[in-house]
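Question (not urgent): is this output format expected?
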Amino acid sequence: MAGKKHDLDGKNIETADISPFMPMFEAFRDELDEHHDRRERIIKASRDITALSKKIVRQLQSPIPPPIAKEIQSRYDSIKEIFNSVVPDLQGLNAWRYRGQISGGCQEYVEAISFQHYLETQRLITYHEAQSLIPEGVQLTANDYMDGLYDLTGELMRFGITNMAISGGMPRGFGKDGVESADLLADLRSLRASFESLNISFSTMKKVHVMRESVEKVENAACGMIIRGKERPKGWVPDLSEGREIGREPVESY
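Got this back:
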């Protein structure tokens, strides 16, 4: 195939045939450009989903007032639109090629929906329930689901300690028959025991460490509330850094 050269003004300069490999490398160039464009779209979508999910988590409380519920639903709708916008980019082999780029958004979204699900039902959302809340075409991996649940423990810790400061008691829910169910601390301990029974990868060790620290903080706060609760003024919030060992990482926050 005849190639063309250009002078400094961009005009064509007629020359002899250039390398026959040029069309092949031009195809490679176009493929790389398409790859980088697709990758940037997915990264931007993941960041937007993460930002909206964090806003949802900050608004969640029990019970959820109707105006807040309406605003939260609008954010969920926006997240679904963002997921749908990258569905064409996550088909076939690309679903795994760009797994790392969409993973962060999926984890934050699982954290948000699992937190709301717990506040409404006092039950842990299942993998299939979480997958059903993500538009078809975006695959939720088991690792993203589990990492989202690890992050959930930090939100439950903050929720529990805040409620103890306000109400003077550990948050607990009610079953369908109106009978009181286990309190938040019991649920956190059960969750910790389930996580510790898993054979986790090295990359998840930090999340396991933070999860254990979150449960310990609720345990310490509950112990302090029982032993010294009457000595403390109403609205007192325990120091979340109390008892932290040197070298420990802080719990993930905003």
